[in-house]
Write a structure and sequence with these properties.
Elements (H helix, E strand, L loop, with lengths): L34 H8 L9 H11 L12 H7 L4 H19 L7 H26 L1 H10 L5 E6 L2 E6 L8 E5 L7 E13 L1 H4 L5 E3 L17 E2 L4 E13 L5 H11 L6 H31 L4 H15 L4 H18 L2 E3 L4 H7 L2 E4 L1 H5 L5 E7 L2 E5 L10 E2 L13 H12 L4 E5 L4 E5 L2 H12 L4 H4 L3 E7 L7 E8 L4 E7 L1 H7 E6 L2 E4 L2 H16 L3 E10 L7 H4 L3 E10 L6 H10 L3 E5 L4 H10 L8 E4 H5 L3 H7 L3 E5 L3 H13 L4 E5 L5 H6 L2 E5 L5 H6 L2 E3 L4 H42 L5
Parallel strand pairs: 9-22, 9-25, 18-21, 22-24, 23-24, 25-26, 26-27
Antiparallel strand pairs: 1-2, 1-3, 3-7, 4-5, 4-6, 4-7, 8-27, 10-11, 10-21, 11-12, 13-14, 15-16, 16-17, 17-20, 18-19, 20-21
Helix pairs in contact: 3-5, 4-5, 4-9, 4-10, 6-8, 9-10, 10-27, 11-27, 12-27, 14-15, 20-27, 23-24
């Protein structure tokens, strides 16, 4: 592995200064700083790493590489907090009043239950609600505990010039991480050396494809998290290649740690139903106290009766006014609604959330995994000068090839250019396509892009398993950001060396001298080049990721020189892929519009991709606007609040920006439902009125932060839950109206008789 940067200190010499490790003296972010300057400031080496004594000193100074834990409340404090709302206080007052009334019954004609039955029933309701609330209080801690699980258990670091495996919690700033495919990254680190490195960052950034990394990649100081190509982050996984990286942040100083602190800082958000019930309880309490005070005062003015009789009369009025059955009826209604939602695939974690979806005016949805399937899929192929549509979804190898006239291509009669394209896509590939029998689902091990190519080849009845035995592997030239291509060299049964190449269209087209047509291979013309370029541009405009597929056949039996193997290529075809929308999403978005709910997309993916998906599913309307994370960083909260109703797509956003967006919608008076599946979605899930997490593809962090979990990860299920929530709200309204009408009759009767009635002498 060649060294991408020089070192300013041969060993981990001095301890870095107390200024932030994430910024230089000029407040330049570590990813935008010169690599040598980073190493010098960290007192780190690009070859030997730290020595053990220095690592121990830094561990004492910076602490363990552990994510932050929230301040935990005592059990008693949690229980007491459940009684601190007006409705519960009103019920406790009613219970106390009922006890007083029971003790004043000195006749002895009534039994214990007759005298204190009301008080016992009210107290049981209050205690039950308190324990339900106590159970829900643990959600915040559970989210942070799930965040802890994302930390790598161990790490390979270079200490005293040797590679050692240590517990990840002992990694310190300045340590040199050694990374390879399959490793979980133990800390945030600046890359020092890279070989064909790619990491999976979907949970942290929302990026639907693996992120290519390069130690020498220049990064702007305001680059969003997903564009920091010279960094790796805690909670992500290496899917391809090797690297060496110097640790710049551990524990709470990592990007994952910052998200943990945001989760911890966002308090539990009351649902609209809870807010309305609190307001209703406050009103009831004030009315009861006022009427009781008026009646008691009037009694003292009139005189002629002992004070304890007047107090009993005032107490009776209060008992008549308080709807003791409201919490019980509300809880039962919500519980029944929760069961109905569960049958539709929406699992409720917080009872009042059952109704909240029905009140939602904005659904802020993540793109990757919610609106889309989070599985790269080839949608189009261009080979032999012809366009082909590809059916099927995700990594499932079932599908078909359709011509522009929508005629299905027979698999045993594939045109030669298309057949060559599929074979090369399968051979120039390091991913593994695997069938999960238990879950009846196809999945990939490795790069999602390469997984999509394997599925494509299998759809053409050319799976790698059927091709590989006739091709002896000789050599591989891995992908890197400079070459923008990957090559695998094989030898077929006829002794021919074949270089299978895939990569960027603009780069490979310059290396092509031949064109594979239906009638055979011929020299490439200027018209061919123009047609290929136009087709690549057309695919890109549809938000497809475009790869060119080429090959070079040689009759040499000895190993071909690396400098020559990628010259004089034959162009085979183009493939266009994307993370496709879920099948039912388009109808669900249309249902939202009819219901008066504004659906918006908040994603970490690119602007062009996000906008294209929004248009494809009908999310985009005339006059809508899109804004990126970089643009969001340039405006203050007041400007965001002013513009938020015109914005439909929020692209390349960070966890902090998602939190700002949710708060902006709330400031405009909206009831916000936020969906998400990644770690970066968790703070916004907790801030929203109702957080909707993905159950299948989501992270534990998102599920613990959410109020509702979708068992099928489908946006359409949210729309079904909205319908259920609105029905529940109507039922609660009817119950409240019934209770108030009943209590009002009793209240008026007691008040009139007590206020105007003739007292006995």
């Amino acid at each position: 592995m060649s060294d991408s940067g020089t070192t300013s200190k041969s060993e981990g010499a001095s301890t870095p200064s107390n200024k932030s490790l994430a910024t230089s003296g000029q407040d330049k972010p570590v990813y935008a700083e010169d690599l040598n300057a980073v190493l010098a400031r960290l007192g780190a080496s690009s070859n030997a790493g730290l020595d053990e004594s220095e690592a121990a000193t830094r561990l004492t100074k910076y602490g363990k590489n552990q994510l932050p834990e929230g301040a935990k409340k005592s059990t008693l404090m949690r229980l007491l907090e459940q009684f601190a709302n007006p409705l519960v206080l009103t019920l406790l007052a009613a219970a106390a009043i009922a006890v007083v009334v029971g003790f004043t019954d000195a006749s002895g004609q009534h039994g214990f239950l007759s005298r204190f039955g009301d008080a016992i029933a009210i107290l049981l309701i209050v205690i039950l609600n308190a324990f339900l609330g106590y159970y829900q209080e643990r959600r915040a801690e559970a989210a942070l505990e799930a965040l802890q699980k994302l930390s790598a258990p161990s790490a390979r670091v270079r200490r005293d010039g040797k590679v050692k495996v240590i517990p990840a919690e002992d990694v310190v700033p300045g340590d040199l991480l050694e990374l390879e495919a399959g490793d979980a990254v133990a800390a945030d680190a600046r890359l020092v050396q890279t070989i064909d490195l790619a990491t999976e960052e979907a949970a942290l950034t929302g990026e639907s494809t693996a992120c290519t990394k390069d130690a020498l990649a220049p990064v702007a100081h305001d680059a969003p998290l997903g564009d920091r190509g010279n960094m790796v982050f805690t909670g992500t996984t290496v899917v391809r290649g090797k690297a060496r990286a110097v640790v710049t942040g551990t524990g709470s100083k990592t990007e994952l740690g910052k998200i943990g602190e945001m989760i911890n800082s966002v308090g539990d958000q009351k649902t609209p139903l809870e807010e309305r019930l609190d307001s209703f309880g406050s009103t009831i309490l004030r009315v009861c106290l006022l009427l009781s005070a008026v009646l008691l005062g009037w009694g003292f003015i009139r005189g002629g009766r002992p004070w304890h009789e007047l107090l009993l009369e005032a107490v009776s009025l209060a008992v008549a006014a308080i709807p003791e059955g409201l919490p019980a009826i509300t809880t039962i209604t919500l519980a029944l609604g929760m069961q109905r939602m569960a049958r539709r695939g929406a699992i409720v974690r917080k009872l009042p959330a059952v109704e909240t979806l029905g009140a939602a005016t904005v659904i802020a949805s993540d793109k990757t995994g919610t609106l889309t399937q989070n599985e790269m899929t080839v949608r189009a192929v261009y080979a032999g000068g012809k366009r082909y549509k590809v059916t099927g979804e995700g990594y499932d190898p079932s599908g078909a090839f359709l011509t522009e006239a929508n005629e299905e291509v027979e698999l045993d009669k594939l045109p030669a250019p298309l057949s060559y394209t599929l074979a090369t896509a399968a051979l120039c590939n390091n991913a593994i396509l695997d069938h999960d029998v238990e879950n009846k689902k196809w999945k990939i091990i490795g790069d999602p892009t390469e997984g999509a190519l394997l599925a494509l080849a299998a759809k053409g009845n050319l799976p790698r398993e059927s091709i590989a035995p006739s091709h002896e592997f000789i050599h591989e030239l891995p992908f890197d950001s400079d070459r923008k291509r990957m090559t695998v060299i094989t030898r077929d049964k006829n002794g021919r060396e074949i270089a299978h190449v895939k990569g960027s269209c603009d780069v490979l087209l310059e290396l092509c001298v031949k064109f594979a047509a239906d009638d055979g291979v011929r020299g490439m013309t200027d018209e061919d080049r123009q047609a290929i370029t136009a087709e690549a541009d057309r695919m890109s405009s549809q938000a497809l990721r475009v790869l060119a597929i080429c090959r070079r056949v040689s009759k040499r039996e000895k190993k071909t020189d690396d400098a020559d193997v990628e010259r004089e290529l034959t162009f085979l075809g183009l493939v266009g892929m994307m993370d496709p929308p879920r099948p039912a999403v388009k109808d669900a978005v249309a249902t939202c519009k009819r219901a008066g709910i504004r659906a918006v997309m908040i994603t970490g993916d690119h602007k062009l991709t996000a906008t294209a998906i929004a248009k494809e599913i009908g999310l985009w309307d005339e006059g809508d606007e899109v804004i990126t994370g970089s643009e969001l960083a340039q405006i203050d909260d007041a400007e965001l609040i002013r513009r938020v109703d015109q914005l439909r797509v929020f692209a390349r956003t960070t966890a902090e920006q998602k939190l700002r967006i949710v708060r902006a919608f709330k400031a405009r008076g909206h009831v916000v439902a936020m969906t998400g599946d990644g770690v970066n979605d968790a703070p916004a899930l907790r801030e929203s009125h109702i957080g909707v997490a993905m159950g299948k593809g989501g992270t534990d962090v998102a599920r613990q932060a959410g109020d509702l979990v979708l068992a099928d990860d489908n946006f359409a299920t949210i729309v079904d839950a909205v319908s259920e929530g609105r029905a529940i709200y109507r039922n609660i309204q009817k119950f409240i109206f019934f209770l108030l009408s009943s209590n009002m009759g009793l209240l008026v009767a007691v008040f009139v008789v007590s206020f105007f009635g003739k007292w006995p002498p």
